[in-house]
Design brief:
Number of domains: 1
CATH class: Alpha Beta
Oligomer: single chain
Helix content: 40-55%
Shape: globular
Number of helices: 5
């Protein structure tokens, strides 16, 4: 039997609004995933290091500060640099469509906006890891 899918949920930067990331973390846990939540004010370095130490399959980042075009690419760069570029990156927050397109080109798996139902995120992860859920 394969181990549960391990998801790291991160809240990078100075944004202190964490209700959404906690709701998503709880929803993913309730759907059967193993979830690690890093807490507020994480740096890309901290997120990448935790992802590697915890041997996660995916990192979900919640960003409402507008710094998504820095924080997501930098975290992805650090993961690749540390040999963990296969960790799936996804995120959520207030991200304009043109920025989403650019982040997808960089390799970000999926970006969810406000009001997204947990089921949509669960379905995305199950689609990406069909043998693990």
């Amino acid at each position: 039997m394969a181990r549960k899918l391990r998801i790291l949920m991160a809240k990078p930067g100075l944004d202190g609004h964490d209700r959404g990331v906690k709701v998503v973390a709880r929803g993913l846990r309730d759907a059967g995933f193993e979830v690690i939540y890093t807490g507020l004010h994480q740096t890309p370095e901290m997120i990448a290091e935790t992802a590697i130490q915890e041997d996660v399959d995916a990192v979900g980042m919640s960003i409402l500060s507008g710094a998504h075009m820095v924080l997501i690419p930098e975290t992805m760069r650090l993961l690749k640099e540390k040999g963990a570029g296969d960790i799936l990156m996804f995120g959520g927050g207030i991200i304009p469509e043109e920025d989403k397109k650019e982040l997808y080109k960089m390799g970000c798996g999926k970006l969810f906006g406000p009001g997204t139902e947990i089921r949509e995120i669960v379905d995305f992860l199950k689609e990406k890891f069909p043998d693990r859920t």
